[in-house]
Structures are given as C-alpha cells and as structure tokens.
Amino acid sequence: KRVASPSFEGLDDTVSRKRFRESTDSSPSMTSNCDVHAESSNALSYSALVEDLVQELQCGCCSELVYRPVVVSPCQHFFCGSCCVLWIKNGGTNCPACRGVSTHVTSSRPLQTMLDVLLRSDPSRTRTERERMQADEVYKPGQPMRIPAPREPSPEPNFNDTPDWDYARPCPHCAADNQFGWACPQPIVDYATDPERAWHVDDGAPPGHAYCGNCESLLALQAPITTKCDFCQVSFCGISVHGRCIALPLNTQQPHDMNDLGDFVQSSEIYECFDSNFVEVEILFDYLTTRQITPKKIYREIVLHIQAQPHGFRPLIESGVFAEIHVGADEDPSVPRTRICRHCAADILLWGLKEWWVREREAAIQKGLLQRRPDCEAGSSCSRQKDLG
User: Fold this and answer.
1) Are 274 and 281 within 8 A, CB to CB?
2) Could you say which of 2, 107, 208, 309 has the lowest number of CB atoms within 10 Å?
3) Residue 200: CB partners within 8 Å, gap ≥ 6?
4) pLDDT digits over 265-312, tens only?
5) DSSP string of 214-269, one letter each residue
C-alpha cells in the first residue's frame, strides 16, 4: 500500500481528501484579502511620501510649497523667487534661513522638476491663480539676482572720549569752503573748536537749521538744495539718500513703501481703506495686476482729481490727514501746494484710494473689463461684507 502524501498527514480519518482539496481551492479569496490590505498599505505610504515631500519643499520665507524655486549659494538653501526678491528689497544682506553670507542666487531646475512631478500627482497643492500672478509680478524665471554684501558695522562710540555727542555738529553747508558752493549764514559752532559756544542738542535745532525728515541730519533751511513739503511742513536735506531726502513736485513723487504692485498688495493699510472688505480688495488686486496699474499711477490720478475739485487739498488738511507728521500750523489751508514728501504722498494715496476705485470700477464696467455687481445698500456698515456666500 502506497504511503499517504505528506500533505494529508495529521488529518483526521473522518475528513476526506475531497473536502481537503475543496478547502485548499478556497484559498484564493484569502490571497485576495491580502492583496487589498497590501494596496491599502501602499496608498498610505504614498500619502505619507507626498506629505514628506511637501514639508521638505517648503519655502524658508513664506513656509508654503515653494514656487519658482531659487537656491542661495554657497549654503544651498532654497526659497520662492518672489520671496527672495522681497527679502533683498527689504534690506536683506545674507541668506534668509541661516543668515550666512551669500554670494549669488540662481534658479533651480532640479527642484522645479520635483515640484512639477509632485503637483501632477496632487494638483490640489497648486497655489491659487492670484498668488501665482502676484509672485510673477515680483520675480520672473531666470531673472538675475544677487544678495548685496553686508555693510561694515559702525564702530562702537566711546562716550567717555567724545563729550561732543550732546552738541550739534556743523551741517554740510556750515563750512565756508564746502563742496556744495553755498555757505550757511548762521554756521553751527563745532564743539571740538569752541566748546563754550557749542549748541546743545537739548535746546532743539540751531538757528537757521532743522532736521531732515528722512535721514534726521541737520540741514540749512536756506540752502538751495533744501526742500520743504507743503503738506507736513517738514524740510529735507537733499544730500544723504537720493530720491528720499527730498520733497518733489506733486505729480512726480513716489508714495512711501509703495514702489511697485508687490508692496501695494502686502500693505495692510489697503484693507483698512475698504473697512476690511476682503472681497472687494481681492477684486481690486486682480484688476490692478491684470491692467498693470502701479501705485504711482493711482497716486497721480488721485492728485489730479483733488486738484480739479473746488476746494483742492483743503478738506484733507482740515481733516488732519497729515497731522501725525505735521510740524507747523497751516495759517491758510487753501494756499497752493506744489511740493510733497514720500510720506504725505502715501497718505494722499490711502485717503483717496477707495473713491478712486469707485470711479475706476465704473469706467471698467462701461468698457466691459469688469462685470457689474450690485452694491450693498448698507455700504461699509454691512455686517455681511466678508461673507463669500
């Protein structure tokens, strides 16, 4: 008699070989369950991998998934191209992540390839169209970029050896042979030459002088290059910082901290102009980006509109728009205003922005550039103005 197969060893005699084969044939269902479990595990592993990639590809400045990445050398930290540009514009002189001295910034094709693969796998990670448009306004792919070298630190002052810190120093025009070709008629006495007649800073500005509204250096009020803002009555030296230490004609001035649309979008004061109506502000930003309208252009149009009114700038002056930096009283608010500083230009821009948008929006609707939407009867007092529904 042939010996039973090892597969049947240990079976009870009451269990037939046929039943054993049937139970064996049913094993594929168990295998199928294992396959489902393996697929579920793979899906979880894939999700975890995507999350890990998203964390690793975060910009070191905005902490979002990097957009148009650039790499800082030699430390090799990477950031959004637009974030790096804004970092440099705001005075950054080193790597935003490690603060190490950096030589140059370049676009990263390998990182961009990884991003493209990631976004094809999970399109929900893509930034909104408005965010991409705003970033593209600040940084163009391939745009050359270089982080400026750090400035040399100023030497620590030795207050024990320099008692003249408490005394006013001569302005650039006080020396008779100065390079500007104009001598101050009331020169400030230098403490180093005549301590007894030196002017103490606690007594205010010396006669015939004032402090520059930008660099805060002493200036001669009668100097040909000294200018004065007709709105805040602050004087500017015209020497230290080009384009800033000066009050320019009304239509040529640049509003402070609003050099381009990127600065304009990041300003929280814009939302205050619209009583925190975020929906209307987003529509405004999209329109400005599409039409390539700069803050300076808006400022000029607001100035022209004010000048065309019967009372001109008088309502702004009487309402205290420039009160925070005003150093003197306006005896006649209706006198002509020809020169303005950067800070007052920004105040005018913010003061007239909402009314400018009302006029611009209506004109855009008439041209078919914007879709007409019904305005709320409650206006800015509506409690539902932030309700997107």
Assistant:
1) yes
2) 2
3) 166, 167, 168
4) 777 788 888 887 878 888 888 888 888 889 999 999 999 999 898 888
5) TT--EEETT-TT-EE-TTT--EE-SSSSTTTSS-EEGGG---TT-SSHHHHHH-TH
Label residue 30 exposed, middle or buried (CB < 10 Å: 0-12, 13-18, 19+): exposed
CA distance 321 to 306: 14
Report which of 68, 51, 61, 49 is spatially closest to residue 127, judged by C-alpha positions. Answer: 68
Chain position carrying tokens 């320019």: 248
- The DSSP H or E segment spanning 281 is helix 278-291
**Omega before 74 within 30 of 0, i.e. cis:** yes
| pTM of the predicted model as reported, rounded to 2 decimal places | 0.57
Structure token digits, residue 376: 């709320």
Q: What's the CA gap between 287 and 360, in Å, rounded?
A: 10
Residues 6 or more apart whose Cβ sits within 8 Å of residue 132: 67
pLDDT tens for 122-156 read 888 888 888 888 888 888 887 777 777 766 554 45
CA distance 346 to 288: 17
* Pairwise CA distance, residues 339 & 303, whole Å: 12
Please give the structure tokens belonging to residue 247.
């009050």
The token pair that represents 352 in the structure block: 């007239």
Encode pLDDT of 369-383 as tens digits. 887 777 666 655 666
Tens of pLDDT, residue by residue over 8-58, are 455 455 555 555 455 555 555 555 555 555 566 666 677 777 888 888 889
Q: Among all chains, which residue has been given the structure tokens 């649309």?
A: 261
236 strand-pairing partners: 227
Tokens of residue 152, six digits: 């040399």
DSSP 8-class letter at 199: P
For the record, the structure tokens of 160 come out as 């024990």
Instruction: Give dist(CA 251, CA 348) in Å, integer.
Output: 12
Check: CB of residue 80 under 8 Å from CB of residue 51: no
Q: CA nearest 21: which of 37, 5, 36?
A: 5
